[in-house]
UniProtKB/TrEMBL annotation:
Keyword hit for DNA repair: yes
Domain UVR positions: 208-243
Classification via PROSITE patterns: GIY_YIG, UVR, UVRC
Name of the protein: UvrABC system protein C
Organism the protein comes from: Rhodanobacter caeni
Amino acid sequence: MQSSSSPAFDGKAFVQTLSSSPGVYRYFNAADELLYVGKASNLKKRVGSYFLKPRMEPRIAAMVAQIARVQITVTRTEGEALLLESQLIKSLKPRYNILLRDDKSYPYIYLSSGEDYPRLAFHRGARNLPGRYFGPYPSTWAVRESLSLMQKLFKVRQCEDSYFRNRSRPCLLYQIGRCSGPCVGLIGVADYARDVRHAEMFLEGRSSAVIDELAEAMEQASKALDFERAARLRDQVATLRQLQAQHHVQGASADMDVLACCIEAGMACVSVLFFRNGISLGTRDFFPRLPLDAEPGDVLTQFIAQYYLDRPVPRELVLGESLADQQILGDMLAQHSGHPVELKTSVRGERARFLQMAQRNAQASLTGRLASRQTLGTRFDDLQKVLGLDEPPRRIECFDISHTMGEATVASCVVFGPEGPEKSHYRRFNITGITPGDDYAAMYQALTRRFRKLAEGEGARPDILLIDGGGGQVAQALDVLDELGVSGIVVVGVAKGPGRRAGEETLVLARNDRTLGGELHPGSSSPALHLVAAVRDEAHRFAISGHRKRREKARERSVLEDVPGIGARRRSALLKTFGGMQGVEAAGVEELMQVKGIDRGLAERIYATLHG
């Protein structure tokens, strides 16, 4: 780190020491903070352009004035330099670089293997389970929509294995014609394998081959006078043809992404249309952090380099702008993916239509984001005035508690900034070890777990801590902060108004001496209250969804799993013999012994577990 007494950085002298090799350069300020990462085909010329030019753009001049140190990494090729630059930008997040902010992993459709009745399922995260993964899809909605189609077309099960193993009668999905009932043997292994194969072919984009097979089977059923089955196959073929017409891209045999960028008022939007095997998977918008004076081509170059670092690269990228490093970028992606990658800007026909669609989508999304940002800015400014803060808050955290009569209690923490919700910072806390239904104890535990890490130097400090509740919950927050020695956080409770009417909430404040203070009633027209209510509602939604997942998981788990000696096969036999858990609980030791594989000792253990 350079002290204030150190001499100013002599950029001209430093440039004379550089070689003409390709590489990456990094600029640091006097506090040793990274300002900028760049790549060059000729380090001497590129770095020299920052220090030898008489005039520069204001943004670049402001950055150069802060440079106190330059770090150089020489690479063999310009492509290697581009790859290293992208990796450094993504991991180090320099202030003056275009930065893709995309923390979520992408969802896939998962098809299990190694069992008689495989399942299709939504999957996000590490792909380490045996089976096949189809995707990635641009959004959760796209996966859910595809899975819904799979249910209608091929009736392959999507239920959890624990639910599947413990069924004694077919579920509602079978009754409405969206599952073939493999859990209770209503379809043979061979017929089910055929449906799985058709679903797999459809996800691979081979819908024409599926249609041909189904049409042939329909003819055979018709000749055999099995008109009911022939009608079902006819409807299936008709639905597939309709989907094929809606989603198929003419001439797009390879995977393809279509990218367009729009810049306005210091913000950028990159809209991406995803196509795999000629089938549209939907679209997704990105809003990269944008330095001043960036052009759409610069944004697309950095977006592509960062986005495809850790994702499958399609064989074709259709771009709305020509890129300065287009050939180098294509070579880098090809080397990274192991297959040829084409970057196209001059396209016709269907591709031109999709490119126009991406450009319109980018413009519309950016317009909406700008309007939302202006509204948020007004709300944050008003919240500053209402709470009497020195400056608008930069980070708001809100906590809420959800449970069903004390069961499966979950606390949520959501985070909002000047640009809206920061979902990558959301957290949930499974609450344990408290009296069921004690919301104060639940809030105390959640806040302690959150702010203990802050007291230890981990995580970001919120400017405002919102608590869904009145004076009692605010007191819990103040106790936690006092015990952990955390200061400088404004604590505000959000209490429901008379009749629980929206817009009449009361804000419960804490005084500077960390005790309860007065109350505020901003009123239904207050932008500050609109912001507080939006954050509170998001915390409520996030808590409820977490609670429901935890409750459902607990209820899916059979108490028989706690009995030593009871595996999946014996558990399934018990449930089928007695028609479900209610019948097992009503059975005596002698009746339990009638089930194959259950001796007296095991029957007594089962009875003791179920009856305490």
